[in-house]
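How a chain folds remains the central question behind the approach discussed here. For one protein, we set the task of working out the C-alpha cells from the amino acid sequence alone. The sequence in question and its C-alpha cells are set out directly beneath this paragraph.

_____
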Amino acid sequence: MIEGILIGLSTALSFKNILMVMVGCFAGTIIGMLPGLGPMTAIALMIPITYGFDPATGLILMAGVYYGAVFGGSTSSILLNAPGVPGTVATAFDGYPMAQQGKAGKALAIAAYSSFAGGTISAIFLLIAAPSLSKVSLSFRSPDYFALMILGLTAISAFSSKGQFLKAMMMVVLGLMLATVGQDSLSDITRFTFNNMNLTDGISFVLIVMATFAMSEALTIIFRGKDPNRAAKQISLTELGSIKINKEDTIKMAKTIPRSSVLGFLIGVLPGAGATIASFLAYGMERNYVNDKEKQKFGKGSVHGLSAPETANNAACSGSFVPLLTLGIPGSGTTAVMLGALLGFGIQPGPRLYQTNPEIFWSVIMSMYIGMVILLILNLPLIPYIARILAVPRNFLIPLILFFSVTGIYLMSFNNFDIFLMIGIAVVATFLRLYDFPMPPLILAFVLGGLMEETLRRSLLISNGSPNFLWDRPLTAIILVFTIAIVSWQTYKSIKK
C-alpha cells in the first residue's frame, strides 16, 4: 500500500494534475451553485475536454468537478433555498433559516468546514479500506437495501415539529405516490401517466426539489405579502460577511462531523445510494442523537442540522469511488458517466485496477486531499461576497429565483412540459406550505420511494412472494431490529412527555 501511495502522490502532485484539480474544483463549485445543473451534467461536458489526456489526469479532472459541485451546491441551498445539486437538499433545512436570521456568512462557513472535514476523513477511509469495502458493497442484496430504506424513513421524525407528525406522514404518502409515476423498472408497464408520454420516465427529482423549495418559497413570500425590501433592511452587510464560528458551534461540529463522515462514506459505498440519501440519513440520525434542547432547533437554524448533511454528502462522494474503482460498478448517475469515460480511455475498472493501473487508482485518492484543501481555500474568502446575495431586495431576487428554476429545468430536458409540471407542483406546494405542511418528508419519501419499491419487488420475486426475506438474511434482520428500536424509543419518549 505504501508503494501505491507513493505512486499516487507522484502522479497527483505533477503540475498538470494539480492544475486539473484546481480547474475541476473551480468549475464544479460554479456549476454546483447554479440550481438544476448538477455534477452529472458538468462531468458529461468535461468528457470531450479530457480526450487526449492520460486516464489518470482525465479522472482527476472529473473527480474534482464531482466533489466541487457538491461542495458548492450548498451555497444556493443556504442563500436561496434552491438546492444546487440533489445532495444539498437537506442542507437547506437549517442553512436557509440560519441565513434568514442574518447568519448567512456563518452558515456558509459551517458548510465549508463540514464539507472539507467530511471529504478529507472519507478520503482517508478510501485510502485504507477501499479493497476490503468492495466486498461489503457486494454483500448487500435487495432485502438489505429494502431494510435500509425503511430505516431511512424513520428520519421522518426529524422533519416533523411538535404536533405536526400527522402532516409529515401525509407528505410522506404524497412523496411515495409521486415516486410511482412513470414506467415500472421491472415490468416496463407505465403507471399514473394519464396517457401522457412526457411522464413515461417519471418525475425528475430535481424538478420536485426546485418546485417544492425554490419556486414555492418565492410564491409563499408573494402570497404572504412580505415587504420586498425586508431582507435588505433586516440583515446588514457586516453580518452577511461574518464567517466567525464561536467555540460552542465548533464543539457541536466536532461531535457531528465524525459520525456523519462514517455514515456518509458507508452509504456512498453502496451502489445506488449516493450523496442525497446519505445527507437525509445523516440529518435524521443527528436529530435523534442530540438532546431535546438541540432537537427543538432543527429546522430553525441548527448547527448540527447544517453540519450533518454537508459532512455526509461530501463523504458519500468519496465513498462512491469504492464500487467504481474496485468493482467497476457505478454507485450513482455521476459515477456511471465516469465509468463511461474510463472505458473510453480503454481502462476497465475492477478488482485488478490497483494492480494493473496503480497510478489511476492511487492518484485519484491522493488528488482528493489536494482538492479538499483547494476547495476550502477557494470558498472561504468568497463567502462575504457570495452572502451579499441576501442583501438584494426581494422584488429583484424573487424573479431571479424563478428564472433560474425555470431555466435549470428546461436545460435538463429541453421539454416545455417539465416547466408546466414544475409550476403546477410549485402552486400545490405553496398552498401546503401556507397551511404548515412540511416539505422535507415529501422529498425524503420521493428519494427513497423508487428504490424501496424496486428492492421490495425483487425481494418478493426471489422469495416467491414470501415475507421470509425480512428475516432470512442476518444483515436484513439486524437493520430492521435497529429500525424497530429507534421507532420504539421515539414512541416511548413522546408518551413519557
About this structure: The longest strand covers residues 182-183. Residues 2-496 form one domain.
